[in-house]
Amino acid sequence: MSLIEKKLLSKVLEERNGYVLNKHNVQENDFYSLKEAYKFINEYIRQYGETPDYRTVVAEYKDFDYMPEVFDTFPYLCKSLKANTAKRQAYELLQKQAGQKFETLNGTEFINWLAEESVRIKDVANASSSTGTNYATNGQERREWYEESKEIRTGQYIPTPYPSLTEWLGGGFEIGDYILLQAYTNRGKSWIGSQIAVEAWRNNFGVLHYSPELSKSQQIFRLDTLNGHFNNVAIRRGTLNNEEEYFKYLGEFKAENEKFPYIVKCMEDLPQGLTVGVIESDLQANPNVKMVIIDGFNLMTHKGTDGNRNNMANTSRMLRQIFGRHKVAGLVIHQTPTSAEKENRAEDETGVRIVTPPRIDQYSETIAVIQDASTVLTFDQHDGVGALLLAKCREPHVGKQLEMHCDFNRGYILESRATSKAVGEVEYF
């Protein structure tokens, strides 16, 4: 029996901490002698939502020699396990596959195949996913980011940021629901998603925010813009005119806010990509989270061998199950193709582009995201004028549309409405 495998599974069981295996990208093929015990633990967590007691596993697998009080850390054990996997795969590569490929491939093909397999094995050894960044507590870290930028110039219902939308949804986004936000490229859908997340956090709902397209500082500075209305360009460049006010604001983000976390994971936290396994493990590790933001469905790693469209459909179905199982509202942001924007394009009599949110059927890649989502929002924006369409929901308000004022750089995304003060006058709230 592998000592590393025994130590790792024993520590998992002793600390009732099964999520850590997914966090470190540990998979079934990383186990050689305790593969069946790992599969049992993993299936138990999926079925019951918690790590089994060690006695349950020992009773099921008599050969599993449980080892109490393992003092090695999880990162060390998982890294060692990955190293063993890489070593085992390298041995199999040299002893079995290399000989067969040498006989069937020409020189260049063989060298290319050997190089690709070597890189794959190296990636196995280095596979990992970080724990992300807690926005609720890292004010000092953000100040350091700002100073660096300055130097180098670089409940049950979660209310929405828009009063009418919250009313149309019967109180907001319901815990356990799958929400889809669709928009054309570069129209501000990530800003809308971030504002929805900030509003949830302000109302004491923990947030888990995946933004695999942006760097950590880019995403978190956006949150500061939305939450504190600090100029986004200036905050990224370290050129704020009101930086003392910003520093005072950052001082409010301390460990005392841990009860309602806002955890951000960006591209540097996801070297192996964003998968449903990573999301589920993060939710197991953070039971206070009630809203998940996935900014870029097409940026996820969709596993499978049945073609990318079907793999995406499978991912969508699994997300729906995860949101329900962990009792979180999940907002998935997805891109509508450019062809839809061209099809919908219209101008007024002065030649100004009319803002037109995409239709619900103008999805990209897979219809599953439309079918799986209980609420579908579509968004469009041009020159500060926005429109958010409620394209699908359980309430009798499908087809209603919000007119919006969008000043992303200053963090103002506001619902607008005509008032009785004067014809054509607009009030923002």
How far apart the termini lie comes to 64 Å
How many helix segments? 16
CATH architecture classification of the largest domain? 3-Layer(aba) Sandwich
Q: Strand-and-helix sequence, N→C?
A: HHHHHHEHEHEEHEHHHEHEHEHHEEEEE
The CATH topology name of the largest domain reads: Rossmann fold
Instruction: Estimate the global geometry from the Cα principal axes.
Output: globular
Q: Compute the number of structural domains.
A: 2
CATH class of the largest domain: Alpha Beta
Tell me the helix content: 40-55%
What's the CATH H-level superfamily name of the largest domain? P-loop containing nucleotide triphosphate hydrolases
Strands ordered across the widest β-sheet: 1-6-5-7-8-4-9-10-11-12-13
- Topology, number of strands: 13
Provide the structure class: alpha/beta
What radius of gyration results from the CA coordinates? 25 Å
How much of the polypeptide forms β-strand, as a percent range? 15-25%
Report the biggest beta sheet as strand number plus sense, adding barrel if it closes: 11 strands, mixed
Name a few traits of the molecule.
Rossmann fold; alpha/beta; eleven-stranded mixed β-sheet; DNAb Helicase, Chain A; single chain; 2 domains; 429 residues; disordered C terminus
